Task: structure prediction
Amino acid sequence: MFDLATLQLIKKIDVGKGPDGIYYDPGTKRVFTNNHGTHDITAIDAEKGEVVGTVKMEGDGEQAVIGSDGMIYVNSEEAGEVVVFDPKSLEVKHRFPIGVAKTPTGLAYDAKTKRLFIGCREEPKMVVMDATNGKVITSFPIGKGVDYAGFDPGSGLIFFSCGEGILNIFHEKSADVYEDAGPVKTQPSAKTMAFDPKTKKIFLPAAEYVETPPAEPGKRPTRTMKPGSFTVNSSRIVDQILVRSPCELNDFLYMSDPGLRETLHPGLYSPASRAGFCCANHPHNTQLNLSPRSRTHDPPRLRT
Result:
């Protein structure tokens, strides 16, 4: 937990093992961390910086959204379901199986139609689900390695950022009718994003990696980021972003629009305490220590 004005550390808060995601609920003024090591969710009082309880996720939580009913909806990666919990009581209310696809990561939500938009990695698909009862409405194929989703209520556009270098876009014509608006080429590794509803810009961080074969059979290969390769792609209005250091990049995004404070991943801003929170052992927070570099990318404009 740190002070946004001075960037000074306020305190360190012990949560579950392997925190991988973090988000803020303005209704309860609580911060939540998805813990992959302990397969649960830690709830923190944003004003005091104290742990107030744990949600029994029984799975690895990915992207989460806050529903119009005040409940928090979060993808459970291994279980292949959407878990719904009360941010106040921390009680799990529902477990909605997805069924038509596995390994859900990205999640977006339309409060008006009460529809969840789920991005799944295994059998890569975008799945539309009724948030009130868990019924699957429809699904579409998407790119490989999806990790994040976004929704623009003004245009009805749904976005999925995929690690293979694709931004999939869909249009919600009505609660049960959707169309594929076509993919936009981004950059390999650009699997997460931040959407700014004010400027209609999408920001996609990416970098170049060197992959080393696993030391043991059955293990994952090791990926090492190439120094100086970190960049941010922006779509619709193409920007030239000079990246001198991670802090300066964050300052640029914070200065350009305060609304990004609550959408950038995996850190967040809490209005309750006017403090910032980040997952200290998340790999993204250590991979940003890169050498200076200026880089420009011109991905295609979004089709609206």
Q: What stands out?
A: The two ends are 39 Å apart (CA to CA).
